[in-house]
Here is the input.
Amino acid sequence: MASKAEDHRVFNKSQAFYEAINARGKDYAAEAAWMRAMIGVANPGAKRILDVACGTGAHLRFLHKQFDVAGEDADATMIDIAKERLPGVPFRVGRMQDLAVDRPFDVVMCLFGSITYLADAAELRTTVARFAAAAATGGLVIIEPWIAPQEWRDDMIEASFVDQPTLKIARIGTTERYGSSAVTRYEYLVGETTGMSGFSETHVQQLFTDEEYRAAFAAAGLKPRSERSDLFPHGLYVATKQ
Here is the structure.
């Protein structure tokens, strides 16, 4: 996921554990299969996909055999993991706010609520405009939102656990809200065969409204439709570039 921080990182030391932590509640293979089917209907001739805020390339590993794929993420460590996983796939380090491509893509997608690491609604508008500029005529711009303001709950405590033979992780998170910004503070305890470690991370995300997403699409000359699936609890915005 991309960040607005100066070093462009949200994740402190958890990149290597990212998928293990999300494994219980996220099925990357099923999500990629759903995306393949949806793209096949919405843009049957699609050949090239750009995954913005691609993380470790978890979705692209299930798409790269059917499409020419590329990925971009602000976190250099995430990109290193993606390159090791998918040799030959073009990955680069870059902020979504600065997205620019040499050749347009048939699909430009930004999944898993990564779009909410932007600073505010104004940055959302300029970033969606960059997505639109990176898409070919007839291409798709796909954004997976995150929690809406009315869904947010203050002072929550969440926990995630990983219990693998050579890896044990406990992650505890507490939440706060400051206006439209949601702050989650995580504490990690990690056990590996090499020893124990602990560290902290703070994630700041924006609680964008449906109106703000649609206004950003409209400003970019796009009219999104809402797609629903149990795989994507907050839905998807899908727009075709005319």
